[in-house]
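lol ok so funny story. i was supposed to be doing the assay writeup but got distracted and ended up predicting the structure for this chain instead. priorities right. anyway since i did it might as well share w the group, maybe its usefull for someone
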Amino acid sequence: MSQHQHQQHAHGNSSGGGGGNAIIPVSEVYWSLVDKADKKFSKIRDLPSYERQRYDTYFYKVFKVYTELWKYQQENRQKLVEAGLKRWEIGEIASRIAQLYFGQYMRSSEASFLSESYIFYEAILNREYFKEGLFQDLNLANKQLRFLARFLMVCLVFNKREMVNQLVGQLKLLVDECKRTFQDTDFKEWKLVVQEINRFLKADTAFMNTRPLRYSLALDPHTDSLPRVAASITNRHLRLRDAILSSYHHNEVKFSELTLDTFRMLQCLEWEPSGSFYQSPGTKLGASGHTRTNYSQDIVDHTLPPNPRKAVLYRPSVTHFVAVLATICEELPPDGVLLLYLSASGRRRSSISLSDGVGAFSDATENIARNLQTVGISSDETSSITFGSLSDDVPPSGQSKVDCMHHRSPCLQFGNRNSGGSNCIYPCDLLPFTRRPLVLVIDSDSSMAFEAIHGAEKGEPAALLLSPRSLAPTVAHDFSRCPGGSLFTIFLTAPLQAFCILLGVSSSEIHMEVFSKAEKLLSSSLSDWGLALATSDSLNPVWAQILNDPFLRRLLIRFLFCQAVLSLYIPTSGKEEFLPKCLPSLPKSVAPTSVAVQSVVRQIASIFSMDKKFNFSGAIPPV
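and the output, tada:
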């Protein structure tokens, strides 16, 4: 219904006399609230999603308006229907509220907002708000398509797979029916959406979700039981407060603006809600409005610490990436550490000429410095970055630390390869932000270029987890990106599945009893490795200060498993290009050469009858 029609309905309901004492018609009040809510919704939709608390107050103001609007239409439903209110218009309000909740979840990582978004979308689905007149009105058909796509995203992140499958079927049927009904309209974009979600689900199989990717107190060590690092190593204990997750690959698996790699990392850095969290029925959509306001607070599981905030960046420009990174570093709490996860194809030294590189790199450097100034980091700080000599004297092989800061050094490609250095993230781009505690996870064939950061930090030693430069030869060469995402990222988020993928063991060949046995063994072994780290006298303080954070601890010990498996796997054993690396180095007691580590890998391999594919030392007896 147009605004003009709304005004006509409003005037039609006005009382005849009364002058200044005339009662404002219900419909006029309602459409005034709709207009107010729409304006506030448009404003919050355009706000940055990565600033810590600056926009939280505004969110609650917008939500307050929508709560008032929802309550008003409930209390005056009959009068509004008589005045011309359509059923789809009620659905539109509910959809906006669901979008608000999901947007706030993406800003804050608070699970209660995600749950509320799901509840609203589910109610819209069950009540079929957009169904009436669907195939007579193209605009209404598009509303239903957008609703299904948005609900799909919420269900994916919330891990509601049964609902995901149901929605995918509905979306495909609706697109096909719309093509037949509205023959003059091109639904090519919606066909691509269907293809995109099908491709995503084909990669993110049930096998990949055998256990929750989120941190589960039923499966992972309870925070109270995590061993403390000795005070002689460090008295500093940091918590993961923020994370930036971003990937950029040609033709990568994604749905909307969530790539498969960032999707897995996002879940890996959150708590799995407890039973009471899931079982709470809550107040259903359509119940009295005053109960809706407090529901997102009532559903919170107070036994769990808050999730770290995450900024998920989809194919960002380098200057936007740096601006986000600078803002989050500026707002990082004193006891906080920032995790930076970057997954992207690398650019080799030989892929850019000197003449092209200097101009492109200079432009990128100027843009970076400009962005740093706009978010409050002084130019004096940025001027201390060493970019290296711009001469032609670049060694053809073997690179020093200074050489890694060179404009022709390997880097991460976050854009079109033909646009020069302006789309590249170099190690030197991250140096200004090493004034705050950082954990860098680099998943790229150019990952080793970021070793240059180690020892060149500006105040806080960084912790680095670097992927192998090359993929294991027995894995299909295109597996790194398709169909299953990065193998290194899978090791960090679903390590036993990564082990099976590496060995070519398909999910159809695995009995669940066998997998569960291996899962229990791996879980207990990783806990033992965590204890070994915590009690080691040689643990570097950089790792010691973050070891009590459950998310970072789990990433680190899963990295150890990845490193051990690839170091012992015969096709990759002893070949540096196939091995991941962490800096600073970890104690020898958890190195792949240790008897304890090799014994675990051998036992797990034996469960799958794959121990002959590994090169164990003579000190490790067969299982």
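The CA atoms of residues 492 and 559 lie 6 Å apart. The first strand starts at residue 239 and ends at 248.
back to the writeup now i swear
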